[in-house]
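Morning. Coffee machine broken again, so started the prediction first thing and wrote up yesterday's gels while waiting. Chain of 262 residues, entered below exactly as on the submission form.
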Amino acid sequence: MSIVSLTTDFGDLYPAAMKAVILGINPEVQIIDVTHSIRRAGIREGAFALYSLVPYFPAKSVHVGVVDPGVGTSRRALALKAGREGEEQFFVGPDNGLMVPAARRLGDMEVYEITNKEIMLKSGISATFHGRDIFAPVGARLSKGMPIEVVGHRVSDFVDLDFGNVGIDGPFLEGEVVFADGFGNVITNIPEAAVLKFRNFGSQVEVNGRKISFVQTYGFVGQGEALILIGSHGFLEIAVNKGNAALQFGLKSGDPVAVRVL
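Came back before lunch.
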């Protein structure tokens, strides 16, 4: 059974239209909702959601990502193929960097501009809902085995995206917030390797001027206590046991994070 995943900032209602289009083209496909709760126009958050999950999808999976504040403008529509030969996965979405970190994580990447109108929604293309009219039908056709070359020509000048810089300044490890999940856990762009150069589990550190524990998991501190850990995604995460770190620390995507060794 083929798989199409959906990642959007749509909330309710609109994902159903995309699913209807996909199923109309490939009734046998399995549709997986990664999330439809990305912050409105939160391209980096959507990119991180895809990045953190793609290694667990089987070969030939198709990922349709629609966090698209540029919909209807001159921004291009893209399809990507990434991964080792025979283990490739596919990505469909806007040319704003949304899909690039996830595709790069899989390995070799090819990027194509979607220009073939024959594989788009037959009833016409709206100016405001390319998720339904372009990305969903192209993703569905890829899930049925359509060669990616059919979508259009290959490009190299696509919009790139990464999760920002991580730096070391004396006793400080400096990065920024990438994503806050539904529990209020704050995920930074600071990778595990950089963190472990500073302290081992059980240490006390200071995060943005506040002293907290560096532990292995949430239950190693009391209820309501703040902590940092290495999350399942492999990045430094700020959390509050049975609480909301994003609210307690007042952190959102793009905010700086400084970790100081004590």
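The helical segments are 14-25, 43-53, 100-106, 130-143, 192-196, 245-249. Going to sketch it on the whiteboard this afternoon.
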